[in-house]
Amino acid sequence: MYTRFKATEYKPEGWLRRQLEIQANGLSGNLDKVWPDVRDSAWIGGDREGWERVPYWLDGFIPLAFLLEDKDLIARAKKYIDAILERQQSDGWICPCSEEQRESYDLWAHFLIGKVFALYYDFTEEHRVLDALYRSMKCLHTMLESKKLHLFAWGQFRWFECLIPLLTLKKHYNEPWITELGRELQKQGADYSSFTERWKKPLNVWTLETHIVNIGMMFKYEALTCALFDEKYTGIAEKLWSFLEKYNGTVVGTFAGDECLAGTANNRGTELCSVAELMYSCEVLYELTGKQIWAERLEKLAFNSFPATNSDDMWTHQYLQMVNQIACISVPGKPFFGSNGGTAHLFGLEPNYGCCTANFNQAWPKLAMNVFLKAKDGILCALLLPAALKTVINGNNVTVETETQYPFRNCCKFTVKADKPINFALKIRIPTFAEKVCVNGKEVQVKRGILTVKKLWSGEESFTLSFTAQPHFVSRPFGLKAVQYGNLFFSLPIETEYKMLEYTDCNVERKFPYCDYELIPLSEWRYGFADTSLTVTEKEGDDVPFSSKAPSLAIKASFSRVNWDFAEGYINIAERKPVSYKALSASTEMELIPYGCAKLRMTEMPIVK
């Protein structure tokens, strides 16, 4: 449906660039300095983890470095790529294990490093990287064909991730073995459509077919196979999403999974890895299918669940987030979260497990790479985010810039520059909630969610797009409600004390600023909506886009106390619904803030009687 521009043609601007700068100054930009599993990885000749963590990190660090045009970050990315390439075996094998260990080496990491090479090549066009990718995948094809290797465990459930680097190879080589490898991976890989019955109710057992990160990745498998095999897309992803949303969906567009599917209760966890992977799946699906719903889902993830699970400075993150999250304090005794431990919801270096420490890095940079897409007759602005595209159309240099505070404000200034007069269409995806869409103050008609401005562009031209939206209640399980405005959801924030924890565990040091934190509640949380009035208030904010201290948007609402207990057996986790929906106090006006800004929060609450 759409194709990508060159990676080097994208430039983040405004609040989006600021968010990437925060990430670069935080854990993402310093992980190779402070975390042994990246700093001393077997991928670069060290003695630490030699499987998914370095490739995970590079998958976000590489676009972060190049989008910011940061020479130091770029040099450090190159250092890792060089070290990995130097260790590639003569037959093309790329992963850090001996020949005797290959049979037992989970091939998921092989797919992941292939994605990294493809991404690095997109930014650098270095043929040595493309050649290394070619030889590594040809080696994989040979070994699978000869039955020296087979898919199992994570590789079996993430087989489709290998199709991403294979699509890069097909573009440059288009040799028969590339699609043959894709077919063999599909043959040996897991069939997610056969697992739906297991997704209906949370299981008291850890399984790969209900693992939330596998599920976050899998939505794109049909679109990728259709792209590689030149087949017609049938919409499997839409069917599986609707099914999972019914039985495991959260209000902010994720699925509850801690680590496996956990139902619809607002006090269960959602793993950060799954949020990052869901975002990427939505990006791929919108690019390949053009279906508006994937861009809408992407926005809900990017504007709500992802910023909510990172600290303002992005030095710490959670493994698990909760929709109603009244405390992030170590849970003694029996863990509350499925197969995860009692510290999984703390903010820290690697709470519960380190996969998210490495993998959360991809979310913001890849979002920035999806603001613009190439349409058959011009340029599509797929996401109303501040960015610039500098490309060439029919030999003519063309720049499209967007200036916007969206999603915090519902307007965007477009500036188009062309060296010479040129005809092309500038298409703009309009969010489905938008009302009264205007260009330069004059209302316009939008067809199938796309506003098209097709004309002869010459010199520098600008126009302003604006639209309105209404805050409203969204119905949730157990008779609860949540507040939505545009693609932002809103929460009642809980006043918070941050308790810093510095320590060493398994030879991994937690030391400020990459230490752990418990978040202790200091204010009341047992509330319900006293009425249905909602008033949007725009604020100044600060230099953190999703600031927990100074949000740039709020909604005023009336609240009353209700009888709401802790979950049975726990003293810091709210029960999924109140004991009674009867008001216990007079109404009080308070402010809701964006879900992504509220680290301790109540999001789903009743309208009281």
What would you say this structure looks like, in words?
The chain is α+β, with helices and mostly antiparallel strands and 609 residues long. The chain has 17 helices and 23 strands. It has helices at 14-25, 31-34, 36-39, 53-67, 71-86, 108-124, 127-145, 153-157, 163-172, 176-188, 212-218, 221-229, 236-248, 272-289, 292-308, 355-359, 363-368, and strands spanning 10-12, 270-271, 320-321, 372-375, 378-381, 387-393, 396-404, 411-429, 435-439, 442-443, 450-468, 472-476, 480-485, 488-493, 496-501, 503-505, 508-510, 516-521, 527-529, 535-538, 553-561, 588-594, 601-602. The strands form five sheets. Strands 1, 4, 5, 6, 7, 8, 9, 10 and 11 form a nine-stranded mixed sheet that branches. Strand 12 and strand 13 form a beta hairpin. Helix 4 runs parallel beside helix 6 and helix 6 packs across helix 9 (163-172).
